[in-house]
Amino acid sequence: MLQNYLTVLIFIGAGIAIGAILIVVGLLLAPHRPDDEKDSPYECGFEPFDDSRLRFDIRYYLVAILFIIFDLEIAFLFPWAVSLQKIGLTGLFAMAVFLAILIVGFIYEWKRGAMEWE
Amino acid sequence: MSPGAITYQALFYLFAAGIVFSGLRVITARNPVHSALFLVLALVNAAILWVQMGAEFLGIILVLVYVGAVMVMFLFVVMMLDINAATMRKGMTRYAPLGLIISGLIAAEIGWALWGHYLGIANTPHTAVAPAGISNTEELGRALYTHYIYVFEIAAVILLLGIISAIVLTLRWRPNTRRQDINQQLRVHKTSDHMRLVDLRDNSRGRKES
Amino acid sequence: MQHFAGYFVSAWGAIPAWVQYLLFTLGKILAIAVPVILSVAYLTYAERKVIGYMQSRIGPNRVGFRGLLQPFADVIKLMMKEVVFPANANRYLFFIAPVLSMMPAIAAWVVVPFFPNGSAANVNAGLLLILALTSLGIYGIIISGWASNSKYAFLGAMRSAAQMVAYEIAMGFAIVGVLMAAQTLNLGQIIQHQSGAFWHWYFIPLAPLVVVYFVSAVAETNRLPFDVAEGESEIVAGFHVEYSGMAFAVFFLAEYANMILVSALASIMFFGGWLSPFEGIPYIGAPSAGWLFLKIGILLFLMLWFRATFPRYRYDQIMRLGWKVFIPVTLVWIFVEGAFLIVHLPPWFS
What is the ipTM of this complex? Predict the structure, then answer.
């Protein structure tokens, strides 16, 4: 098993290397003539005004938090789905209760309009 | 030592050093975004170590949930709040004692656990290694949904609590935005639902058509 | 000749096992990465040709026979272009972002089986590994948006991140449906569970999940009609607006490599991977990598077709589709599948 994961690790390294090498090749081959106008952030021809790191709608945090919760649900569903035949009806029932509780949350989310995007 | 064992050890020390290094950078980096990114690196290193110890499911879930979801939220928060490092450092002296106490407690707990383990006091039974051919994930599923079923349902309640509190804390309706209400759009049946007929008096005298 | 072959065999045997392993792995990397990059090159060509003909144009036809060398011309052009580092940008992160978005698109192929027992690493938790790796792709986008120090890039990155997040959930739930049917996370075994002719494939009992998965995959790769992240008519290209030259090319490469990857996953999970649709009939019924490539090709063609046909969604519509349509559909179908499992619905759940 571990040797397989070593292969995975080497592939991850290769993935990083391929991306990095391509950019480095680009940096080496291409000209490099920095210029104030060229390097200024792109704002459709306007002079950049105020800080580019803006404050954002709180809605994005909410999306991120809900994403974590649903991601955890998926994390719970994966081992369940894989061992379903071994755990039989007990397992099926356990997950039904689990999902029922979370569907309550989902309905609440829906009714409160947390998934509404303005 | 066989080449396999050497590789194993070398990789272990490499990624363990990776955790320590990125952990240090988390608290020393000046920019909070960099701190968050080093925390990501630390978690990835930890996940690799877990996989190395045979916990493939947990290692990958660590990447999926913590790196793929929790840290994304951290980054959202840190990037969007645009925290100024200087103002944050102001409270340093005030919070330092509390921080020291908490880190001291954690260090003591870890020390205690390790102490017990190495002196054989805690006598923790070694978990049996799963026989070859049975996947880690399946084994975990078998235990979690039968033996630990109540704990599992409590997890659902905690997640529900998470959903509700997140919504209660952050959801604000802004009154002046227009949004599409599909139900209202679909409810339109008769002409009179979306159209008002206005009687116009005929004031074009003498130029009558038809 | 015989003598030479024998010589090589004995020379190979004399190499220590770990060197053999390293050489072998290097060979696998080349055998996967080179075709992936070449297919990306020709996918861009195919895209321009297909959309061209759909819009009564002929697409690129100047470089080489019928424009067949066009992708290489594009790559050489991009290589010669300056990589502009914007002022006040964070140079390291600016460099790392495209690399991070490229990594999962290459690394995830390690567990994809191309033919029976034909994956670079036969990992038990293969599907989970792919899900975890692709969930890292979001970092390339967030970091590039933040590191470029540009409003447009940051806005595009945030929109794109929120969108990817919503569809990742739908994708995850759809995958759970496949796991329930196959009872394993190993991609090779998932295919084997679908053996039999095409009516044994999972796209029939999991029909709603196929739609959810594939549409989410399109959204996840930021393709039209879900490409508000790029939205050239509104926010001028989103998170990679400040990228030029090869740095941009890497983002581009990653997007197309991801398209191929999600098509491969869809063909493996729902359409039997390397299995032949005519299993049981001699000759054409044999499993082969060709079938997998054919299925990937058909799904990729669908993605190009989407681009030529559908107008872009509005952002609130995208979020609504992800959260309010796909997640409920997948949840309902998980319960339906539970019922299938109880009654042992043949031929998929027997």
Answer: 0.87
